[in-house]
Protein backbone atom coordinates (compact mmCIF):
# COMPACT_ATOMS: atom_id res chain seq x y z
CA UNK A 1 0.00 0.00 0.00
CA UNK A 2 3.01 2.37 -0.26
CA UNK A 3 1.90 3.48 -3.73
CA UNK A 4 -1.77 4.28 -4.27
CA UNK A 5 -3.83 5.84 -7.03
CA UNK A 6 -5.39 9.24 -6.49
CA UNK A 7 -7.64 11.66 -8.33
CA UNK A 8 -7.61 15.43 -7.97
CA UNK A 9 -10.90 17.32 -8.18
CA UNK A 10 -12.55 20.55 -7.15
CA UNK A 11 -15.88 22.27 -6.72
CA UNK A 12 -15.63 26.01 -7.46
CA UNK A 13 -11.95 25.92 -6.51
CA UNK A 14 -12.42 24.00 -3.25
CA UNK A 15 -9.99 21.19 -4.09
CA UNK A 16 -9.59 17.62 -2.88
CA UNK A 17 -7.35 14.59 -3.13
CA UNK A 18 -9.66 11.63 -3.75
CA UNK A 19 -8.55 8.16 -2.66
CA UNK A 20 -10.46 5.13 -3.89
CA UNK A 21 -10.48 2.67 -0.97
CA UNK A 22 -13.69 0.60 -1.35
CA UNK A 23 -12.88 -1.91 1.39
CA UNK A 24 -11.29 0.51 3.87
CA UNK A 25 -7.86 -1.11 3.60
CA UNK A 26 -5.85 2.12 3.61
CA UNK A 27 -4.39 3.18 6.97
CA UNK A 28 -5.38 6.83 6.71
CA UNK A 29 -3.90 8.91 9.54
CA UNK A 30 -3.97 12.65 10.35
CA UNK A 31 -0.26 12.86 9.49
CA UNK A 32 -0.77 11.21 6.11
CA UNK A 33 -3.73 13.43 5.26
CA UNK A 34 -1.79 16.57 6.16
CA UNK A 35 1.13 15.37 4.04
CA UNK A 36 -1.10 14.67 1.04
CA UNK A 37 -2.67 18.14 1.32
CA UNK A 38 0.68 19.94 1.65
CA UNK A 39 0.91 22.18 -1.43
CA UNK A 40 4.72 22.10 -1.50
CA UNK A 41 5.69 18.57 -0.45
CA UNK A 42 2.50 16.67 -1.24
CA UNK A 43 -0.24 16.79 -3.86
CA UNK A 44 -1.91 19.86 -2.39
CA UNK A 45 -5.59 20.23 -1.47
CA UNK A 46 -8.10 21.66 0.99
CA UNK A 47 -8.94 18.13 2.10
CA UNK A 48 -9.00 14.41 1.39
CA UNK A 49 -12.05 12.43 0.25
CA UNK A 50 -11.75 8.71 0.86
CA UNK A 51 -14.23 6.69 -1.20
CA UNK A 52 -15.18 3.69 0.92
CA UNK A 53 -18.20 1.45 1.11
CA UNK A 54 -20.40 2.42 4.04
CA UNK A 55 -20.37 -1.12 5.40
CA UNK A 56 -16.56 -1.07 5.51
CA UNK A 57 -16.14 2.07 7.62
CA UNK A 58 -17.11 2.36 11.30
CA UNK A 59 -18.56 5.84 10.78
CA UNK A 60 -20.56 4.73 7.75
CA UNK A 61 -21.81 1.30 8.78
CA UNK A 62 -25.02 2.69 10.26
CA UNK A 63 -25.92 4.18 6.86
CA UNK A 64 -25.15 1.06 4.79
CA UNK A 65 -28.82 0.18 4.28
CA UNK A 66 -29.47 3.58 2.69
CA UNK A 67 -26.22 4.39 0.87
CA UNK A 68 -23.56 2.06 -0.54
CA UNK A 69 -20.80 4.69 -0.43
CA UNK A 70 -19.47 6.70 2.50
CA UNK A 71 -17.61 10.00 2.09
CA UNK A 72 -14.76 9.86 4.59
CA UNK A 73 -13.80 13.52 4.59
CA UNK A 74 -10.65 14.94 6.24
CA UNK A 75 -9.56 18.58 6.47
CA UNK A 76 -6.14 19.66 5.23
CA UNK A 77 -4.68 19.64 8.75
CA UNK A 78 -5.63 16.00 9.27
CA UNK A 79 -8.75 16.64 11.33
CA UNK A 80 -12.02 14.86 10.49
CA UNK A 81 -15.08 16.82 9.37
CA UNK A 82 -18.75 15.91 9.39
CA UNK A 83 -19.78 17.32 6.04
CA UNK A 84 -18.51 19.14 2.96
CA UNK A 85 -20.98 20.46 0.39
CA UNK A 86 -18.39 20.86 -2.38
CA UNK A 87 -16.78 17.58 -1.40
CA UNK A 88 -19.96 15.55 -1.74
CA UNK A 89 -20.46 16.84 -5.28
CA UNK A 90 -16.86 15.96 -6.22
CA UNK A 91 -17.29 12.60 -4.48
CA UNK A 92 -20.39 11.97 -6.61
CA UNK A 93 -18.53 12.93 -9.79
CA UNK A 94 -15.81 10.42 -8.89
CA UNK A 95 -18.34 7.60 -8.35
CA UNK A 96 -19.92 8.27 -11.73
CA UNK A 97 -16.63 8.66 -13.61
CA UNK A 98 -15.35 5.35 -12.26
CA UNK A 99 -18.56 3.38 -12.81
CA UNK A 100 -19.03 2.79 -9.09
CA UNK A 101 -22.63 3.97 -8.91
CA UNK A 102 -25.64 4.71 -11.06
CA UNK A 103 -28.16 7.36 -9.98
CA UNK A 104 -31.71 6.18 -9.41
CA UNK A 105 -34.90 8.12 -10.19
CA UNK A 106 -34.46 10.20 -7.03
CA UNK A 107 -30.71 10.65 -7.36
CA UNK A 108 -27.65 9.03 -5.81
CA UNK A 109 -27.47 8.59 -2.02
CA UNK A 110 -24.14 9.35 -0.34
CA UNK A 111 -23.44 8.72 3.34
CA UNK A 112 -21.57 11.36 5.34
CA UNK A 113 -20.88 11.81 9.04
CA UNK A 114 -23.79 14.27 9.05
CA UNK A 115 -26.16 11.69 7.54
CA UNK A 116 -27.22 10.56 4.07
CA UNK A 117 -27.58 13.18 1.34
CA UNK A 118 -28.86 12.72 -2.21
CA UNK A 119 -27.12 13.99 -5.35
CA UNK A 120 -28.91 14.76 -8.61
CA UNK A 121 -26.75 15.11 -11.72
CA UNK A 122 -27.46 17.53 -14.58
CA UNK A 123 -24.42 17.39 -16.88
CA UNK A 124 -21.76 19.65 -15.32
CA UNK A 125 -23.95 20.74 -12.41
CA UNK A 126 -24.60 18.49 -9.43
CA UNK A 127 -27.31 19.42 -6.94
CA UNK A 128 -27.32 17.85 -3.49
CA UNK A 129 -30.36 17.52 -1.24
CA UNK A 130 -28.76 18.73 1.96
CA UNK A 131 -29.65 18.51 5.62
CA UNK A 132 -31.94 21.37 6.65
CA UNK A 133 -29.76 24.14 8.11
CA UNK A 134 -30.55 25.19 11.67
CA UNK A 135 -30.09 28.91 12.34
CA UNK A 136 -29.92 28.92 16.11
CA UNK A 137 -27.87 31.58 17.92
CA UNK A 138 -26.27 35.01 17.75
CA UNK A 139 -22.51 35.30 18.19
CA UNK A 140 -19.51 37.28 16.96
CA UNK A 141 -16.27 36.79 15.06
CA UNK A 142 -13.13 38.90 15.26
CA UNK A 143 -10.64 39.66 12.51
CA UNK A 144 -7.73 41.66 13.88
CA UNK A 145 -9.22 44.66 15.71
CA UNK A 146 -12.63 44.25 14.04
CA UNK A 147 -15.61 42.48 15.59
CA UNK A 148 -18.48 41.29 13.41
CA UNK A 149 -21.93 40.23 14.64
CA UNK A 150 -22.94 36.84 13.27
CA UNK A 151 -25.40 33.99 13.39
CA UNK A 152 -24.59 30.37 14.22
CA UNK A 153 -25.87 27.81 11.73
CA UNK A 154 -25.73 24.01 11.99
CA UNK A 155 -25.50 22.33 8.58
CA UNK A 156 -24.31 19.04 10.03
CA UNK A 157 -21.09 20.94 10.65
CA UNK A 158 -20.77 24.28 12.47
CA UNK A 159 -20.89 27.69 10.79
CA UNK A 160 -20.85 31.33 11.85
CA UNK A 161 -22.26 33.71 9.22
CA UNK A 162 -21.20 37.35 9.60
CA UNK A 163 -22.55 40.15 7.40
CA UNK A 164 -20.29 43.14 6.67
CA UNK A 165 -21.83 46.59 7.01
CA UNK A 166 -20.86 50.24 6.52
CA UNK A 167 -19.69 49.50 2.96
CA UNK A 168 -16.71 47.49 4.22
CA UNK A 169 -15.54 45.35 1.26
CA UNK A 170 -14.85 41.64 1.62
CA UNK A 171 -11.44 42.15 0.05
CA UNK A 172 -10.37 44.29 3.02
CA UNK A 173 -10.45 41.35 5.46
CA UNK A 174 -7.13 39.75 6.38
CA UNK A 175 -7.94 36.04 6.61
CA UNK A 176 -4.38 34.78 6.80
CA UNK A 177 -5.17 33.86 10.40
CA UNK A 178 -8.21 32.18 11.89
CA UNK A 179 -10.96 34.57 13.02
CA UNK A 180 -11.68 34.65 16.72
CA UNK A 181 -14.93 33.06 17.92
CA UNK A 182 -16.71 31.94 21.08
CA UNK A 183 -15.27 28.53 22.02
CA UNK A 184 -18.14 27.92 24.44
CA UNK A 185 -20.60 28.05 21.55
CA UNK A 186 -18.27 26.25 19.12
CA UNK A 187 -16.19 23.79 21.18
CA UNK A 188 -15.17 21.82 18.07
CA UNK A 189 -14.28 24.94 16.08
CA UNK A 190 -16.30 26.63 13.37
CA UNK A 191 -16.28 27.64 9.72
CA UNK A 192 -16.64 31.42 9.55
CA UNK A 193 -18.37 33.05 6.57
CA UNK A 194 -18.24 36.78 5.80
CA UNK A 195 -20.85 38.19 3.43
CA UNK A 196 -21.98 41.28 1.58
CA UNK A 197 -25.18 41.80 -0.37
CA UNK A 198 -24.79 41.41 -4.12
CA UNK A 199 -26.57 43.06 -7.02
CA UNK A 200 -29.67 41.27 -8.37
CA UNK A 201 -28.90 38.34 -10.68
CA UNK A 202 -31.21 36.53 -13.07
CA UNK A 203 -32.79 33.36 -11.74
CA UNK A 204 -32.20 34.13 -8.06
CA UNK A 205 -34.31 35.81 -5.41
CA UNK A 206 -31.24 36.94 -3.49
CA UNK A 207 -27.55 37.39 -4.28
CA UNK A 208 -24.76 37.22 -1.68
CA UNK A 209 -20.98 37.57 -1.94
CA UNK A 210 -18.95 35.45 0.47
CA UNK A 211 -15.49 34.65 1.80
CA UNK A 212 -14.85 31.80 4.21
CA UNK A 213 -12.27 30.63 6.70
CA UNK A 214 -12.69 26.87 7.15
CA UNK A 215 -11.62 25.17 10.35
CA UNK A 216 -8.76 22.81 9.57
CA UNK A 217 -8.12 24.27 6.10
CA UNK A 218 -7.74 28.09 6.47
CA UNK A 219 -9.30 30.37 3.85
CA UNK A 220 -10.57 28.42 0.84
CA UNK A 221 -11.88 29.51 -2.53
CA UNK A 222 -15.26 27.98 -1.75
CA UNK A 223 -17.23 26.13 0.93
CA UNK A 224 -20.43 24.36 -0.03
CA UNK A 225 -21.92 23.88 3.42
CA UNK A 226 -20.87 27.46 4.16
CA UNK A 227 -22.86 28.63 1.14
CA UNK A 228 -25.83 26.67 2.48
CA UNK A 229 -25.50 28.42 5.84
CA UNK A 230 -25.22 31.81 4.14
CA UNK A 231 -28.27 31.07 2.00
CA UNK A 232 -30.30 30.09 5.05
CA UNK A 233 -29.41 33.33 6.86
CA UNK A 234 -30.08 35.45 3.74
CA UNK A 235 -33.55 33.94 3.30
CA UNK A 236 -34.34 34.34 7.00
CA UNK A 237 -33.23 37.98 7.01
CA UNK A 238 -35.38 38.64 3.94
CA UNK A 239 -38.41 37.10 5.67
CA UNK A 240 -38.59 34.25 3.16
CA UNK A 241 -39.20 30.57 3.90
CA UNK A 242 -38.34 29.49 0.35
CA UNK A 243 -36.40 30.87 -2.57
CA UNK A 244 -33.15 30.78 -4.54
CA UNK A 245 -29.93 32.38 -3.31
CA UNK A 246 -26.95 32.88 -5.63
CA UNK A 247 -23.75 32.76 -3.55
CA UNK A 248 -20.62 34.09 -5.22
CA UNK A 249 -17.29 32.98 -3.78
CA UNK A 250 -13.73 33.60 -4.98
CA UNK A 251 -13.87 30.22 -6.77
CA UNK A 252 -17.23 30.66 -8.49
CA UNK A 253 -20.98 30.58 -7.94
CA UNK A 254 -23.03 28.11 -5.90
CA UNK A 255 -26.82 28.11 -5.75
CA UNK A 256 -28.85 27.43 -2.62
CA UNK A 257 -32.53 26.58 -3.07
CA UNK A 258 -35.12 26.17 -0.33
CA UNK A 259 -38.31 24.59 -1.62
CA UNK A 260 -41.06 23.00 0.47
CA UNK A 261 -38.68 22.42 3.39
CA UNK A 262 -36.10 20.79 1.08
CA UNK A 263 -32.69 22.45 0.85
CA UNK A 264 -30.50 22.03 -2.23
CA UNK A 265 -26.91 23.05 -2.96
CA UNK A 266 -25.95 23.14 -6.64
CA UNK A 267 -22.73 23.84 -8.50
CA UNK A 268 -20.05 22.32 -10.72
CA UNK A 269 -17.82 19.41 -9.75
CA UNK A 270 -14.71 18.71 -11.82
CA UNK A 271 -12.08 15.97 -11.88
CA UNK A 272 -8.83 17.35 -13.24
CA UNK A 273 -6.09 14.71 -12.81
CA UNK A 274 -5.26 11.16 -11.83
CA UNK A 275 -1.96 9.71 -10.75
CA UNK A 276 -0.02 7.58 -8.29
CA UNK A 277 1.42 8.81 -5.01
CA UNK A 278 4.22 7.26 -2.98
CA UNK A 279 2.86 7.41 0.55
CA UNK A 280 6.19 6.35 2.07
CA UNK A 281 7.83 9.45 0.61
CA UNK A 282 5.30 11.75 2.27
CA UNK A 283 5.69 10.88 5.96
TrEMBL record:
The EC number(s) this enzyme carries: 5.1.1.7
Listed SUPFAM superfamilies: Diaminopimelate epimerase-like
Pathway: Amino-acid biosynthesis; L-lysine biosynthesis via DAP pathway; DL-2,6-diaminopimelate from LL-2,6-diaminopimelate: step 1/1
Function as written in the Swiss-Prot or TrEMBL entry: Catalyzes the stereoinversion of LL-2,6-diaminopimelate (L,L-DAP) to meso-diaminopimelate (meso-DAP), a precursor of L-lysine and an essential component of the bacterial peptidoglycan.
Sites annotated Could be important to modulate the pK values of the two catalytic cysteine residues: 159, 214
Classification via NCBIfam families: DapF
Biological classification of the source: Bacteria, Bacillati, Actinomycetota, Actinomycetes, Micromonosporales
Main location group: cytoplasm
Protein name as annotated: Diaminopimelate epimerase
Top-level EC class: isomerase
Keyword presence, Isomerase: yes
Subunit and partners: Homodimer.
Example GO BP: lysine biosynthetic process via diaminopimelate
Subcellular location: Cytoplasm
Binding-site positions, substrate: 14, 75, 85-86, 157, 191, 214-215, 224-225
GO MF annotations in UniProt: diaminopimelate epimerase activity
GO cellular component terms given for this protein: cytosol
Amino acid sequence: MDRVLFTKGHGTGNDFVILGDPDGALDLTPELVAALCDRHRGIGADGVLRVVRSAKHPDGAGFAADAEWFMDYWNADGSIAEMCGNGVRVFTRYLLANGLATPGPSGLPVATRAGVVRAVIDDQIIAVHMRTPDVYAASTATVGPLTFPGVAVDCGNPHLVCGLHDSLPLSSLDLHHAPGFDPALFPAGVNVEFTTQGEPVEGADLHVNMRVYERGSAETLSCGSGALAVGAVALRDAGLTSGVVAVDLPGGRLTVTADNSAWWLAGPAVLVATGEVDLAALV
